[in-house]
Amino acid sequence: MHILIATNAFKHSLSAAEAALAIRKGLMQSRLTGKITVFPVADGGDGTMEALLFHKGGELQTVRSVNAQGHPVTASFGWMPGEKTAVVALSAASGLSRLGAARLRPLQSDTRGTGRLIKAALDRGARRILIGVGGSATIDGGAGIIRALGGKFRDRAGKMIRQLPEGLLQLAQIDLEKLDRRLEKVELVVLCDVTTPLLGRGNCVKVFGPQKGAESGDIVLLEKALKRYSRVIRSCSGRDVSAMPFGGAAGGTAAGLNGLLGARLVNGIDYFLEHTAFAAALRQADLVITGEGSLDTQTLSGKAPLGVADRCHAAGLPVIALAGAVPLAPPGVWQRHFDAFFPIGHAPEPLDQAIRHTRENLARTACQLGNLIAQKTSLH
Fold it and tell me: Phi and psi at residue 281, in whole multiples of 5°?
């Protein structure tokens, strides 16, 4: 039997590759025999840069930047010299993980640090820049990136707006005259891990604002700011980004980059699988194991395990998912995508402890899964 392990990152715990290796370790400790292939995957969220470099090779380029609140940090982007392609993870500079214990202030947090990484990629000679937008601490519509690349935001009096995204409440004009002209010769691709729109029902502020520290009053102001931002983008570029699929990714960063820079927004896992050797690996497999930290409604909106499962079923292959949390009462939709799915926890415990035990829990669950498969195989 040939098992393909195609896991996403387990957030706050293991990278996609580390999770896959933990599952492999467990399978190798079981009675199951056969070949095991590790194939970490990503969907534009945490770990996308590392997973792409795992498959395509390349190196990390470390530069000075700032976090979402403007404090100095060092951050890296991936560089594939043969393809002149840079991989920028928004979370590397502008992510929640870079704020540490700092109080979350979504009205005063922006993506300028990611803009500095993009500028560094341009300095390196990039002809294509892939931007993974998961894990952000921001709801600024990518305005910080635009400003870092030379764009200017002005109010009705023509005065420069400094504080983003709060200042977007007074936005009247976006000046792109000084925008870095190298962007005109670069393909920008935004790998999105959610389909959430910028505005309207189920918009990015309401869905993701609370996890970035937005309270009820903040949510009202941020929605107003992004509505004004969207209107000014339309008058500036002619693009209506208010309701486009994926536009709300990373607090509207996807919408802003599409509307002002012409970036292409793509389903992250589809792009990842199409531009790695996943199809070839799938042809060699008899069974696929996927997984991520939590199987939930966001998984069904286009996360990595769903993309893997859909391709498995198209190829007529069974797929099993392992996760730290799974639905308690799975509706039929889950069973249409996954042949089986298992929680990896061995006992009730606080979330922080469960996160620390992810590696061990994955290996133990995989070992028992391997034994079960071996037993089933021996009966035929």
Answer: -65, -35
Count: domains in the chain: 1
What does the alpha-carbon distance between residue 233 and residue 124 come to, in Å, rounded to a whole number? 29
Q: Is residue 287 part of a domain?
A: no
Q: How far apart are CA 68 and CA 97, in angstroms?
A: 10
SS3 215: coil
Q: Which domain holds residue 137?
A: 48-269
pTM attached to this predicted model: 0.93
| Residue 69: partners with Cβ closer than 8 Å, 6 or more residues away | 99, 102, 105, 108, 109
Task: Name the pairing type of β-strands 85-89 and 2-7.
Answer: unpaired
Task: For 157-216, write each residue's pLDDT tens digit.
Answer: 999 999 999 999 999 999 999 999 999 999 999 999 989 999 999 999 999 999 999 999
Is the alpha carbon torsion for 292, 296, 298, 302 positive or negative? positive
- Dihedral angle of Cα 93, 98, 104, 108, to the nearest 10 degrees: -20
Which two three-digit tokens encode residue 120? Answer: 């560094």
The verdict on residue 182 lying in a domain is yes
CA distances from 66 to 5, 90, 171, 187 (A): 36, 12, 24, 24
**What is the number of other CB atoms lying within 10 angstroms of the CB of residue 150?**
16
Please write the tens of the pLDDT for every residue from 85-134: 999 999 999 999 999 888 999 999 999 999 999 999 999 999 999 999 98
How many Å apart are CA 245 and CA 242, to the nearest integer? 9
In a domain, 378, yes or no: no
Q: Environment class of residue 282 by beta-carbon count within 10 Å: exposed (0-12), middle (13-18) or buried (19+)? A: buried
| Number of other CB atoms surrounding residue 140 within 10 Å | 34
CA 302 to chain centre: 11
Where residue 129 sits, what CATH number does that domain have?
3.90.1510.10
Residue 308 lies in a domain: no
Q: How many residues are given for the chain?
A: 380
